[in-house]
Amino acid sequence: MIRLAICDDHKIVREGIRQIIQEFHDIDLIENDISSGEELLQVIRKTEVDVIILDVSLPGRSGLEVLKQVKILYPKINVLILSMYPEDQFAIRMLKAGASGYLHKDSSPDVLIEAIRVISKGGEYLSPEITKLLFREMNSKHQELPHTILSDREYEVFLAIGDGKPNNAIALQLSLSAKTISTYRSRVLKKMNLDNNSDMIKYILLHNLSPTV
């Protein structure tokens, strides 16, 4: 039996997944009412879980940060990222952080069930889109776009600033100080050879990136 927990800040998504899963007797939904990383950590501290379905965008700590903490504290738990964001925006970062698979929320129920079963056995679920991304990354390091060289935290701050959030709001969201956010902002501008927040917004729009926090 696969013991499954779902962490998504949209109840309609959690309920939709529950309805899909209830048709399959080899998957036991341990918890379906987790809407933040903090709630997820509370659940897995006291409940045995094999697979977590985790969203990228969560209130408080982002899905990326939550994923890293889960893998440090509970390395045997396998994590499937289920997100509205396209694979080319977050999949590589999530896989590097320890995710066993990444699915877009447009994926079919059959694909979702297959992914859960594969990663529950310690495997990795790689869609054709992600396989192409991995191959591209292995063979085109010299052609990386500027945002791909940012650290995960720099990337989160970059997208949040580009989404129009002030430093204080980002600091609160990421549990950091406004001064630290300012430091990350300076690093991002330098690494990406940009001059100001306006340049960040233009870059995000040009490359169809989306906020994570």
CATH homologous superfamily of the largest domain? Response regulator
For the largest beta-sheet, the strand count, sense and barrel status come to:
5 strands, parallel
What integer is the average pLDDT? 87
CATH C-level class of the largest domain is Alpha Beta
Please count the beta strands (DSSP E, at least 2 residues each).
5
Helicity level: 40-55%
What are the defining features of this structure?
alpha/beta, 213 residues, 2 domains, globular, 5-stranded parallel sheet, Arc Repressor Mutant, subunit A, Rossmann fold, 10 helices, 5 strands
Question: How would you describe the overall organization of this protein?
Answer:
By secondary structure, the protein is an alpha/beta fold. It folds into two domains: 137 residues, Rossmann fold, CATH 3.40.50; 63 residues, Arc Repressor Mutant, subunit A (Orthogonal Bundle). The chain contains ten helices and five strands. It has a five-stranded parallel beta sheet, with helices on both faces. Helix 1 links the parallel strand 1 and strand 2. Helix 8 crosses helix 9. The mean pLDDT is 87.
